[in-house]
Long-chain acyl-CoA synthetase (Flavimobilis soli), 584 residues
Amino acid sequence: MTRPSEERPWTRSYSPGVSADITVADEPLTAALERGARSCPDRVALDFMGRRTTYRELADHVAHAAGVLTKLGVRPGDRVAIGLPNCATHVVVFYAVLRVGGVVVECNPTYTSEELAHQVADSGATVAVCWEPTAARLAERQSETEVHTIVGVDLSRDLPAGKRFALNLPVAKARALREALRADIPASVVRWERLLKKATRLPASYPAPGSSDLALLQYTGGTTGTPKAAMLTHANLVANATQGQEWTQMGFADGATSGVSDDVVYGVLPFFHAFGLTLCLSFAIRIGATLVLFPKFDVAAVLATQKRIPGTFLPAVPPMLDRLAKAAVEQDVDLTTFRYAICGAMPLPGEVATAWEGATGGYAIEGYGMTETSPVALGSPCSEARQPGTLGLPFPSTDIRITDQEDPYRLVEPGERGELLIAGPQVFGGYWNRPEETADTLVEIDGQQWIRTGDVVVMQEDGFVRLVDRIKEMIITGGFKVYPSQVEDHLRSMPGIEDVAIVGLPGGDLGERVVAAIVLAKDAAAHAQVDLESVRAWCEAKLARYALPKQLEVVKELPRSQIGKVLRRVVREDILHRGDRQAR
């Protein structure tokens, strides 16, 4: 449904050519790969460490892998856990599970056996396809899950033939790399390569899943720390890939059915995270791009690859852009082929955006989303109108409300801060087996489902949305509300401080006291002493007295998520535990 611009004032700030609404195709996510195999069969779909796979070959590999899964008993609706780093097999298994109507359960391959067992058991997965070290850890606790078959993947088999051969050389470097890639697995774990040798292609007549079918259980801890799975359908994922294509104007000229994309997407974000999954596994395939796979983010590897197969599109987090831009200047590596870098998960500092754009000549675009929104919901325009430091504008076919933090049905006045609510075709249908949490998160307003993000925002006159803080991390002290990010932003500019996290701890009559956990800069000694008194003095210039830190904790580093977001909840717990130990 097309809505007038008066109801969506942000659309007036869209880049030229970007529509306010999209049409979401009534198809499964796998349809894009099948189209690519027909329209550009010889286009390179994947590049993993120099080993290339065309769209025709990728579709064929998926068909054989789908045949393996059906032989293992996977049927429509069955959950299949994937515990793999970024590699060609990850892409193949992902699409194979979806092709047979299964539900993908993405797992962090570095999880401990306990973490793996908890997530796999919660999902009810019956088959798990994992990197060998991950498979071995899951096997330790297989009895705690419903998994009847664990499949181990030898990551070295995804490498080009020359690199596979080099692994067998009797030299220390080869031995170390071999040990990093491989692991001993118990006899109960089936080897993926052996299953493939006996595989037959899934018949083309095998029924495809419907657009409304569940495609993905994507786990998110949010700020509560309790992992829960967002249920995302094929329609959710297709919608977000389509929105991304409309936003960037990348890929096939008519949106899906003709032409060949010349884009090269660098897959440095982990695919087990919603951000990496959508931008790389679904968006890249939808636009017919070449996806370059990196098993982990490594500056040297990215710059070396840039010389071999230059990238045009980089989904990343700000620290990645910062390190790449600096290293490229130091090593004289040309990054000017990159047109866009899409950043998320944390604010994009202006200086990082400037450095990246100076090194590339392209744009650094900030985006915002949640696992529950597949994940992208807002973004800065892919043009000179971008605004680093803001969440950007709602995506096409996406509506937002800014409401009272206590009452999601009451809109705040224009320019006032409030909780961000989002509605659109990319918004999930709820949490797996968690009806109470679903009810707390989704609200129906005027016949439309809205997700309460828990983020406090304010909308500018031009429609750009600016993040203030998270409701669940907001500190209430003496009846006043303190937004951690505001204090952090100010303290990061203080000489001698490299990084900071602001948290609230029990504070007696005050409710909570503001605590600053800081990482000292390497040259901190060159500045005046960084202590509580100097920190408070620095903050007094711009912050209210109730927002000034009342306690200072110096730490070596701040705990971060897999994609680099500071985990304030963990910081808070660490400080509390430190206090308990000192008390004893």
Residues 253-259 have pLDDT under 50 and may be disordered. The domain at 49-154+184-197 is CATH 3.40.50.980 (Rossmann fold).
